Amino acid sequence: MKYKLNKYIRVRFAPSPTGPLHIGGLRTALFNYIYAKKNNGKFILRIDDTDKKRFIKNSINYLIDSLKWCNIKYDEGYGKKGKYKPYIQSKRLKIYKKYINKLIKNKLAYYAFDKKKTLNLYKKKYKYFIYNCLTRKYLNNSLNINNKKIIKLIKNNKYVIRLKTPYNKIITFYDKIYGKISINTNKLDDKIIYRSNNTPTYHFANVIDDHLMNITHVIRGKEWLSSTPLHIIIYNYFNWKTPKFVHLPLILNKKGKISKRNLNNNNIPIFPIKSNYKNINVKNSYEELGFLPEALINIMALLGWQPNINNEIFNINTIIKLFTLKDINKSDVHLNFKKSCWINHKYININKINNNKKIFNLLKKFLIYSHIYTNDKLLNKIINLIVNRIKLININEIWYNSYYFFIIPKKFYIPLNIKKYIISNKKKIINYFFKLNCFFKKNPNKKQIILFFKNLQNNNNDYYLFLKIIRILIIGELKGISLFDIFYILNYKNIIFRINNFKYIILNYYK
Ligand code: GLU
Q1: Higher pLDDT pick, 342 / 81
Q2: Contact between residue 302 and residue 328 where contact means Cβ atoms under 8 Å apart
Q3: What DSSP character marks residue 394?
Q4: How many angstroms is it from 220 CA to the middle of ligand 1?
Q5: How far is Cα 233 from Cα 247, in angstroms, rounded to an integer?
Q6: Is the pLDDT of residue 267 over 70?
Q7: From 345's CA, which of 77, 103, 336, 376 has a CA 20 to 30 Å away?
Q8: Is 305 in contact with 312 (CB distance < 8 Å)?
Q9: Closest ligand 1 atom, CA of 48?
Q10: Is the C-alpha dihedral spanning 200, 203, 204, 207 positive or negative?
């Protein structure tokens, strides 16, 4: 594929390794990837690991594995060679130190000494208290107290460094999705940007890195939109050009914004793959539930992006071709499990050969485990017939759609109208069962079966009700593929057995 050449576009995905990557993060990675590919740009993976308190071991491995599973390849970044190395923030501490010193020197950042506890008390006392350009003059910081004291406190590591936001200034920026945004700096707080243990906070490190790594477009979740003015102030303080901002709508489930901390998600998976890493034990993932990675890509692309065409199934190449930022919605999006299953179902059928194999292997394994013997040829035939009904490639779903080929139903779900019909037409039905019995005893072929049922239809006003009864006696309920297809596969003895089994039930229970 050839796209408009724009050498300069550089986007990044900058997750924090604070737990397993969820679908929200992966969607951000995907949109960055798509945007880079569309514009012939570079997609960079950077690990934002400055928050050591929330660091969770193995989250980077999980992240890399998830990207791999989805085939979202990055051009540059963590674990790869690149001009802007290192791509993990904990290895860039010297760089941040240099820049924080610059801000301090220019009096654009300052040391603040009040303890968290003290500030929390102020918050309790004054409802709208924030540490900012209006309140800082009343607080303990290097702008107010004498030098001797400052030196002592810094020596004792009893400080944080805060950004000195300008007083009463309007910060305006354009977000490619949310448009023009303006905010008065009096409403912003003087955010902590550096800690006494020589580590930057996210806000500071992220701006420094985006600048030094020549990031042209910051594409990330909307939860960062409110922090963007602060980032812009930092860019301005260094006289750096700001990148373009693209904030993606939030992804919600029934309980609110999805996040690693909100795992109770009404059974909608939020993690892409299963993992048994220490500290990262992910269950109920898209992978385990039987989603295909290419379907997940399609599902995620539709989380916020709505192209102006009458189709919702597109592979990654088509997505890249169609993608424009204009088609990204402002409103939050909901994870819709039913729709996700429908999309997955479409993908199962797009790559039938491969997916039939996967279904075959799962089913065969299960049958062996359950001591049910069948041959591969028959199994393939069955899979070909049921694949159109399978939404997820997992054994529950496969078995739900195929059990009646292998076992005789023990429970029968008979709708009320059919029950009533059976009770008042028992003799007639038993009579038809007798005919069926005699017919199947001859081990009929396809043609003969079709002919038999045609005749039956001509001589029976209740033919369709009768077919329903046959379906129930074969499957146990009113579902499944065409009855004729089932007849062609089931051994005639098996059919006869099921007819007699059901006849017995009718005679005994519907007296
Ligand atoms: N480290 C931040 C996160 O985990 C990145 C936010 C950004 O893209 O600027 O979401």
Answers
A1: 342
A2: no
A3: S
A4: 7
A5: 18
A6: no
A7: 376
A8: no
A9: 1
A10: positive
CA distance 329 to 334: 12
Question: Distance from the CA of 14 to the center of ligand 1, in angstroms?
Answer: 5
Mutate-to-test residue for ligand 1 from 11, 12, 16, highest number of ligand atoms within 8 A of CB: 16
Query: Which tokens is 451 given?
Result: 């002919």
Q: In angstroms, what is the span from residue 11 Cα to ligand 1's centroid?
A: 13
Residue-wise pLDDT tens digits, 423-476: 999 999 999 999 999 999 999 999 999 999 999 998 888 999 999 999 999 999
Atom of ligand 1 nearest to the CA of 18: 4
The ligand 1 atom nearest the CA atom of 227: 9
Q: Please identify which residue in the block is written with the tokens 């009893």.
A: 158
Give Cα separations from 1 to 38, 68, 72, 406 (angstroms): 10, 21, 17, 47
Q: Does ligand 1 have an atom closer than 6 angstroms to the CB of 129?
A: no
pLDDT one-digit tens code per residue, 55-99? 999 999 999 999 999 999 999 999 998 899 999 999 999 999 999
Asked whether 224 lines ligand 1 (CB < 6 A), one says yes
Q: Given 260, 346, 358, 503, which residue is catalytic?
A: 260
260 counts as catalytic: yes
Lookup: tokens for 409: 């139903």
Tell me, what amino acid is at 367? Answer: L
Give the span between the Cα atoms of 90 and 94, in whole angstroms.
Answer: 9
What's at 91, amino acid-wise? K
Residue 5 has a pLDDT of 45
pLDDT band at 131 (very low <50, low <70, confident <90, very high): very high
pTM of the model: 0.92
- Centre of ligand 1 to C-alpha 15, Å, is 5
| DSSP label at residue 434 | H
